[in-house]
Amino acid sequence: MKVTLRIKRFDPDKDAKPYWAEYTVEASPVDRLLDALNTIKWTIDGTLTFRRSCAHGVCGSDAMRINGRNRLACKVLIRDVGEKVTVEPMLGFPVIKDLVVDMDPFFRKYESVKPYLITYDNEPGTERLQSPEERARYDEGTKCILCGACTGSCPSIWGNPDWVGPAAIVNAHRFIFDSRDQGTAERLAILGQRNGVWRCRTIFNCSDACPRGIPVTDLIEQVKRAIVYGDRNID
After folding, report:
1. What is the pLDDT of residues 116-129, one digit of tens each?
2. How far is CA 220 from the centre of its chain?
3. Of 211, 162, 206, 167, nearest to 63 (Cα)?
4. How far apart are CA 13 and CA 125, in angstroms?
5. Distance of CA 220 to CAs 125, 156, 193, 209, Å?
6. Buried (b) or exposed (e) across 89-120, using 16+ Cβ within 10 A?
7. Is the pLDDT assigned to residue 204 strictly greater than 70?
8. The Cα angle at residue 76 between residues 170 and 221, in degrees rounded to 5
């Protein structure tokens, strides 16, 4: 089948503003959108720029706006988007070139919530053990691949680029609710600030955009309740 991709392009070295370019390629219904993008780059226009790596939905590098929704190009099948596809860079991020966005601000926000195990006790003689129930408490947050799809789908980020964003909160949740961690108060203090968790308007775009099926909005709400009640055991 013939598929036409309408791609939003921008090269800051030569373009005054973004523009739309159309490319028509042959593709199978079970091809991925990433396959079509590769065909364009390899056989039609080598200047088209986008990120890609594992092509298996694990690295998260090829997140982009596909028919108005943030998705991973390597997970979207041609049959699910049709014969005419619109592809854009994710909103809420500075565009470096074409479909490549600047992820540095995103990762600075991620780092700001201290996404690592914090302990103040002496090193134990054995592993820090957990029950299956304790491990399950934060399991959803461990699935995040930092693709930015949730953050780029959030109207709060579009209106306020300084907001920490859903991905950072999800990764904070992963440690806030870890029974082995002793940095909960520090993270809740960070997320309780002006550009912290309260900027979330519970729109659910983030949950829809997540390629790993993480219930992002629910995890954000759990963090809000932990701040209000001062208890990470609150569900």
Report:
1. 999 998 888 888 88
2. 14
3. 211
4. 57
5. 35, 14, 14, 15
6. bbbbbebbbbbbbebebbeebbebbbbeeeee
7. yes
8. 20
pTM over 0.90, yes/no:
yes
Q: Which value, in Å, is the radius of gyration of the alpha carbons in the chain?
A: 20
What percentage of the chain has pLDDT greater than the value 90? 93
What domains are defined for the chain?
2-101 (3.10.20.30), 104-229 (1.10.1060.10)
Amino acid at 33: L
Count of beta carbons in the 10 Å neighbourhood of residue 204 = 13
Distance, in Å, from the CA atom of 142 to the CA atom of 82, rounded to the nearest integer, reads 33
Decide: 46 and 131 in contact? Cβ < 8 Å.
no
* Beta-strand relationship, 84-88 and 100-101: unpaired
User: φ and ψ at 138, to 5 degrees?
Assistant: -120, 15
